[in-house]
Amino acid sequence: MTKQSTSAKRNAWRRWPHRLWRRAACETGATVVEFAMVAPLLFGLLFGVIEFGRAVYTQGALAYAAHEATRWALVNTPPLDGSGNPDYTLYQTQIEQEALKNLVLVSPLKTNPVTAISTPQAQNTRDVTVTMNYTYEVLLPFLKGTVGPFDMSYTSRGFLAEN
Fold this sequence. Notes:
163 residues; 19% strand; alpha+beta
């Protein structure tokens, strides 16, 4: 019995390098380690594309609101004051309200519309300029302290003909 047990021990010692090699060749945790190495890069790229898309959309929404407010100013006539003259300060306020109304999925709290109506120019025209200013902030919490906020603006211009 002792002879058999010593031969079994000897055979076990001969096999241990093979067992060690089999364990070293085992890849059960390799997928998790590879994912842990690649995941931050992939998620950073994914969220970067999302933030860039939000920024491009916001710029387009500002352009739309400015164009629509300018179009509204050109189509509608200015209100008259008590003496029958056009009240351009009230008209500017109406144009700015129209610009804020046309913002789609963009916070009006971070938007500052500015309307300028010039003095009469040649051939009884006035220059109407609507500028939309917006403070863009990133949504990703790990980028908030390092990136932004950014100031975005868009200007639309039209000519208002007076009678």
